[in-house]
């Protein structure tokens, strides 16, 4: 059976998809275990000193001014998990939770967080057992990481809260851990904080969205080409030399795809004598430009995702020279921006596709096709209401494309006074179309392709 090995250098998008959607087993590399142990020695040494160190011997956020005595530090780490597990709303999808946990494990294994190897092993064991903590829709501002979602995962690691078993059904996490021989984690200095302080939820959703949108954009090129053919349009606008003079890579790729689909077509550009057209409508003629811009957006988003997959996001972090330093790497702006960008691009892709549908159904603009593509127009309505449904979906996509990252709301007594809203950006882009209100996300199968931004 295939296994994903987690190394100090990070993981790949394929690894995330394999674990999140395929249930692939996870294993820690020897180098990762060594790095975990080495960074833990640094944290233990700091914990033994009288000097206050954030995350080790102080409170958190706006409460970081309080020094915590050694006998209270285990309680401190438990308390941050319990207090931060305050998510609300419907459950998020199983694949999202698995991606979130796997990506947090990836950061732990970087050797920059200071947690013990047994904490990372326990997280791997939970993933391998198919235990999925219950994580709720609301609770992350996308800064200081996806705090509430990650807290619910950490709570399950402690044997508390609720989780879904491998066969379905929500039960107390402690029962599920016991059934699979997994010992609940007893947190020590910094470990509670390290389990919560990452952009893993929004990154996981970005990785899965990119995989689904890759397929969507290929499909968009095919359907645009078929629409051009059905409308007796000209494929001359797809000539490579026309796209070379505006050298956007995605545009050239989309045009080439459309041209390949239309190769040897007997319908393009030869049947305009009865109703001559100098040019086709924008929704047909500009299909490569719109889909191509989306492809380039995907390329940029993929670059951001690859950088994040190689990153160690925590605060504070253990540096290679042994220093433990506070930082702002938990801010989700890089991921939030591209998630919003993807939602905008795909809403527009849906919009231009809907315009082609409308043109195919309108006898005044479809160049000889029957009204609404009906077999017996008037007796039959054909695809009239299919276009209504498509238009409603496009309208919903436009609403969800309003950028979440343009908003910010201060929190933690103004200590965290600017946040990314990256989790909200991810949820807007990844709104499941297969889950009805009140249904269990885990019951929606297959899990591949639930992204709202891909259903136009």
Automatic annotation (TrEMBL):
UniProt similarity note: Belongs to the PAL/histidase family.
Associated pathway: Amino-acid degradation; L-histidine degradation into L-glutamate; N-formimidoyl-L-glutamate from L-histidine: step 1/3
Keyword tags: Histidine metabolism, Lyase
Residue stretches spanning the membrane: none
Catalyses which reaction(s): L-histidine = trans-urocanate + NH4(+)
Cited NCBIfam families: hutH (TIGR01225), PRK09367.1 (NF006871)
Protein name, as recorded: Histidine ammonia-lyase
Gene behind this protein: hutH
Residue ranges, annotated region (Disordered): 428-456
Primary location group: cytoplasm
Coiled-coil regions, chain positions: none
Matches recorded under PROSITE patterns: PAL_HISTIDASE
Native organism taxonomy: Bacteria, Bacillati, Actinomycetota, Actinomycetes, Kitasatosporales
An annotated Gene Ontology molecular function: histidine ammonia-lyase activity
UniProt-listed Pfam families: Lyase_aromatic (PF00221)
UniProt-listed Enzyme Commission number(s): 4.3.1.3
Keyword Lyase (UniProt): yes
Organism superkingdom: Bacteria
Biased composition (Low complexity): 431-450
PANTHER family (alphabetical): HISTIDINE AMMONIA-LYASE
Signal peptide: none
Subcellular location field: Cytoplasm
